[in-house]
Amino acid sequence: MTGIDRAALLERARLDRQAVPQFDPGIDIDEAYRVQTRLVEHRLAGGDRVIGMKMGFTSRAKMAQMGVSDMIWGRLTRGMQVDDGDRLDASRFIHPRAEPEIAFLLHKPLAGRVTAIEALNAVAAVAPAIEIIDSRFRSFRFSLTDVVADNCSSAAYVIGPWASPSIDLSNLGMIFSVDGRPCHCASSAALLGHPVRSLVAAARLVESHGALGGELAAGSVVLAGAATAAVALAPGQDISLEVERLGMVSFSVGGGA
Amino acid sequence: MNAPVEQVAALLRDAAASGRPCPPVRDRIADADIATAYAIQKRNVEIATASGGRIVGRKIGLTSPAVQKQLGVDQPDFGTLLAAMAIPDGAEIPAGMVLQPRVEAEIAFVLDRDVTETGLTVADIVRSIAFALPAIEVVGSRIADWDIGILDTIADNASAGAFVLGGSPRPLRDLDLRCCGMRLDHRGEPVSTGAGAACLGNPLNAVLWLAETMARQGEGLRAGDVVLSGALGPMVAATPGEVYEARISGLGSVRAVFGEARA
């Protein structure tokens, strides 16, 4: 199967809400990112636009589990955005799950090898955020190259109120709740010890992969990665994330029979 | 095979003294009775105090829904803290002091009033707390391989081992006890993270449960008592020679330093 075929297959899986089996092995990570590029081009052709990136495998445990030593990334588009407090139509997805995250908004471009201080200096604001992932592969079973090709399972995202980036992000409590009951608690430290490390990695990867024009442009949004395990979504649920000092973001799940 | 309280208590004492964990004791407890398990715990505390030990407070365990589910219970448990279990911040915890040690980060509350009545509210608890401290609890099990059920851990003093209190007392008014972040670092990397809500929704809820439970047993809590309110994140196995540092937002930090294993 060619990379073009793989991208078309994944886009078809998304549109039809029909998961596909894992790809046969044989593509390397660079080819997997090329498939992702083509996959997202399908959506851009329909008028969507890329507004930033999401980071994946942002915990040592997850990297060890997948047998990798680096983070992975996917593209966020305008069409994937769900407004804070809105209803998410679950019937648009295959088997959606939600993950608690921290989002960065950049006010100046960032690319290549940057320090944590330089990265923070490019940040206009930080916000609590929830990412909805929905692997186009059956049962969320995929290899590293599969998930990269599949835009890192990203499906939608919700961003809460933007707060000043002067807040110390090294240890903010995060309470992820379903129907108002906490189901996972963590600290922002779960993101590689400090969420800014994820932003530093994003700048490095976007340049080394020559993607998104080789830089995170001013105005970009970066989702720093999941702080806890994901929660499977079902119609009728209310999902919320409260982050210490940053506030609350939430959405409800619709689309039930 | 049921056994008298003293017999089970002796098994646990011997395990602690010899450094050799014993098999689970749950099948020796008549009618799988929780009250009997607490009686076993109390028996060993009495023996410790009879030989000069001093009760300095209580610890609350099983405060996370995940751990309660694992042990098939729907409420926390408590153990008794003795002065000999207290380790100063950064001081070495001698190898072998705690059997099968694991560390967890939590909030310690120090009381400045007696709480002996039942029918308490959170307001009563808030009024009885002088200040909060960051804490690392070193839990341990006298039961081999941590093969514990609810009866085992209650009889074994809620798996209490040692505890380290940080030195930055904070009044409750300065804290967001529900949303505060917790990170437990080993060599600069977080090995466990969590938030205040992981402890029964709010650590004060755990203290309320403890105070009510102790009051119903006619004991209550006393001014000066230290209450370890329950883990804010998953426990982590402690390695000899290593240092674990807990940080809780608003409360500062505290370190547990483990001595090298003896040759």
From TrEMBL, chain A:
Molecular functions (GO terms): 2-oxopent-4-enoate hydratase activity
Keyword tags: Lyase
SUPFAM superfamilies found in the cross-reference section: FAH
Transmembrane spans: none
Ranges where the Fumarylacetoacetase-like C-terminal domain occurs: 95-250
Pfam families in alphabetical order: FAA_hydrolase (PF01557)
GO CC terms, sorted: cytoplasm
Signal peptide interval: none
Record flagged with keyword rRNA processing: no
Domain of life the protein comes from: Bacteria
UniProt name for this protein: 2-oxo-3-hexenedioate decarboxylase
Record organism: Rhizorhabdus histidinilytica
From TrEMBL, chain B:
Keyword Lyase attached: yes
Gene3D superfamilies documented for this protein: Fumarylacetoacetase-like, C-terminal domain
Domain Fumarylacetoacetase-like C-terminal: 82-256
Domain of life per record: Bacteria
InterPro entries associated with the record: Fumarylacetoacetase-like_C (IPR011234), Fumarylacetoacetase_C_sf (IPR036663), Hydratase-Decarb/MhpD_sf (IPR050772)
Pfam families noted in UniProt: FAA_hydrolase
Keyword hit for Lyase: yes
GO molecular function (one): 2-oxopent-4-enoate hydratase activity
UniProt-listed SUPFAM superfamilies: FAH (SSF56529)
GO annotation, cellular component aspect: cytoplasm
Keywords of this entry: Lyase
Name of this chain's protein: 2-keto-4-pentenoate hydratase
